């Protein structure tokens, strides 16, 4: 932990030095920023400033979000904060607000969430004032000049929980990032959002946390969304903001379906990048690999904690690491929101960075079911197979396979780190007729998420099934070219037949009653080894057949 904090401090210190240089250069060129005026309409955009900084009365949900990293000017402490006003009428309230502050040096998390009613909510510009339930009046709005006119892209924010207070001024330093190129995105299965980000803002003011009030300076991020994509009720996601030391900023989404998949479509994979004042883009050509996970102390939720972002087309290779595991928001629903550090490369340039992760997608321990063998006989020429019952695109699983021949008193390893739910155990160190149990252990990449399953009953080991057939079954021809014939020495009731390939894939299923023979058409099967599983009221058996 000490080494991690030391490395994190070095990354943040390096980033802050670069940030100060960027802030100086940006502030010295404010007069050259043609967009720092109202009205401002980005070319080809559906978004217009200042009107789209205000409330959109026709949209069912809307929020104003900021997060950032601050340094105390008295203590030298590192802080991170997140603040959001939501407009989402419910139970007599107009919405709610979230106020989070984290002491990044200690990981202590201060959280406050309450419903509210808006006393001012402009539809023509950025002017919000709200009465917080059981609390104070808070605001977030444009700063005003000497003529009481809004100063473009400059804001003041005041929020307090009684023990935690933000009293900040934010000045946008970069041209707004218009997501989806025009500010409109289809998100998830059937939702939409209008979306822009102000990726770099100088932040000054004061903060109160842990009984300390001090002036702060730092950098912030502003996000604006309005539409019908609803984080409270919709599909779950992982979202990231990144401010990089080379001046590039990234807004990143992975959205999961209800079945825990991430389709390879723009509705589910969204990366928007501010490159410089003249270049920005939105793409779905990227991959996120989860490198680590953590679970909350009460074990209710598990989240990813470290990620690798790669985009070969855009020459991006970044590792994102959560700074803390303590910043789970409890209300109005449970999700994780916390600061991250970033390192890696963009093109040939080494970069560092800071940002935030908002995690609504949670992870489960893997759940598995052994599908073969299931009692009866175990033939070592047949694969041991299982299914992963709760697959998750964000949580790839590897498997360890073990066996027991002493009634589960001890299990011995067979193989580790399998990626496929199937394994053929060559030359097993067991004897003909041994009772054998199998254990499957599923693990996430860092072994944080893990589970195991043991076969429900033993299987009698059969090491030479081609010459050992206690059930008197005739199977011919073998090899088979088109039709496989099975003959039994008695009529069988409730006969179930399955044909399985060497990867454990089920290819054929049939059920019959009171039969003494059976034909299976294998003409369309590929050449290779297959397994025929049969069970009925009278017997249970596995047979091998070669298709040519």
Question: CATH H level of the largest domain: which superfamily?
Answer: AttH-like domain
Helicity range of the residues? under 10%
Strand order of the largest sheet: 1-2-3-4-5-6-7-8-11-12
For this structure, the CATH topology of the largest domain is AttH-like fold
Please state the overall shape, judged from the principal axes of the Cα atoms. Answer: elongated
Q: Which radius of gyration do the C-alpha atoms yield?
A: 30 Å
Which class of secondary structure composition applies to the elements?
Answer: mainly beta
Task: Describe the protein.
By secondary structure, the protein is mainly beta. It folds into three domains: 358 residues, AttH-like fold; 95 residues, Immunoglobulins (Immunoglobulin-like, Sandwich); 79 residues, Sandwich (Immunoglobulin-like), CATH 2.60.40. The protein is 5% helix and 55% strand. The strands form six sheets. Strands 1-2-3-4-5-6-7-8-11-12 form a ten-stranded antiparallel barrel. Strands 13, 14, 15, 16, 17, 18, 19, 20, 21 and 22 form a ten-stranded antiparallel β-sheet that branches. Strands 24, 26, 27, 29, 30 and 31 form a six-stranded mixed β-sheet that branches. The longest helix has 27 residues. It is elongated, with a radius of gyration of 30 Å.
């Amino acid at each position: 932990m000490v080494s991690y904090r030391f490395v994190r401090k070095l990354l943040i210190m390096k980033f802050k030095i670069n940030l100060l240089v960027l802030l100086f250069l940006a502030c010295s060129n404010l007069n050259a920023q043609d967009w720092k005026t109202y009205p401002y309409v980005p070319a080809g955009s559906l978004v217009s400033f200042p009107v789209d900084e205000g409330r959109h009365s026709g949209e069912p949900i809307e929020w104003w979000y900021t997060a950032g990293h601050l340094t105390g000017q008295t203590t030298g402490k590192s802080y991170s904060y997140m603040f959001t006003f939501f407009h989402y009428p419910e139970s007599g309230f107009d919405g709610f607000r979230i106020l989070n502050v984290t002491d990044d040096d200690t990981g202590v998390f201060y959280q406050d969430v309450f419903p509210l009613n808006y006393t001012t909510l402009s539809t023509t510009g950025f002017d919000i004032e709200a009465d917080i339930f059981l609390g104070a009046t808070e605001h977030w709005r444009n700063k005003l000049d000497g003529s009481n006119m809004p100063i473009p892209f400059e804001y003041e924010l005041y929020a307090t929980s009684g023990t935690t207070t933000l009293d900040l001024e934010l000045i946008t330093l970069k041209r707004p990032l218009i997501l989806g190129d025009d500010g409109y995105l289809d998100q998830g299965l059937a939702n939409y959002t209008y979306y822009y980000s102000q990726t770099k803002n100088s932040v000054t003011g004061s903060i109160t946390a842990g009984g300390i009030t001090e002036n702060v300076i730092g950098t912030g991020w502003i996000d604006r969304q309005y539409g019908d994509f609803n984080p409270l009720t919709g599909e779950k996601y992982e979202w990231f903001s990144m401010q990089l030391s080379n001046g590039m900023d990234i807004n990143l989404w992975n959205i999961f379906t209800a079945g825990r998949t991430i389709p390879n479509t723009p509705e589910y994979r969204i990366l928007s990048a501010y490159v410089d004042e003249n270049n920005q883009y939105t793409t779905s050509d990227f991959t996120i690999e989860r490198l680590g996970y953590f679970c909350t102390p009460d074990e209710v939720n598990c989240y990813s904690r470290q990620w690798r972002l790669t985009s070969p087309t855009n020459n991006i290779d970044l590792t994102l690491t959560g700074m803390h595991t303590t910043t789970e928001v409890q209300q109005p629903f449970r999700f994780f929101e916390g600061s991250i550090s970033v390192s890696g490369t963009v093109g040939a340039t080494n970069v560092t960075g800071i940002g935030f992760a908002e995690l609504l997608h949670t992870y489960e321990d893997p759940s598995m079911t052994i599908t073969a063998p299931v009692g009866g006989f175990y033939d070592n020429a047949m694969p041991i197979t299982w299914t992963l019952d709760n697959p998750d695109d964000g949580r790839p699983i590897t498997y360890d396979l073990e066996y027991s021949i002493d009634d589960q008193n001890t299990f011995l390893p067979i193989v580790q780190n399998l990626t496929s739910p199937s394994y053929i155990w060559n030359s097993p160190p067991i004897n003909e007729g041994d009772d054998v149990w199998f254990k499957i252990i599923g693990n996430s990449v860092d072994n944080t998420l893990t589970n195991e399953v043991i076969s429900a009953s033993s299987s009698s080991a059969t090491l030479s099934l081609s010459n050992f057939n206690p059930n008197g079954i005739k199977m011919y021809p073998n090899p088979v070219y088109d039709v496989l014939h099975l003959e039994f020495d008695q009529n069988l009731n409730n006969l179930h037949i399955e044909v399985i390939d060497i990867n454990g894939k089920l290819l054929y299923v049939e059920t019959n009653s009171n039969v003494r023979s059976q034909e299976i058409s294998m003409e369309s099967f590929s050449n290779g080894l297959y397994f025929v599983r049969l069970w009925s009221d009278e017997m249970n058996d596995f047979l091998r057949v070669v298709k040519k």
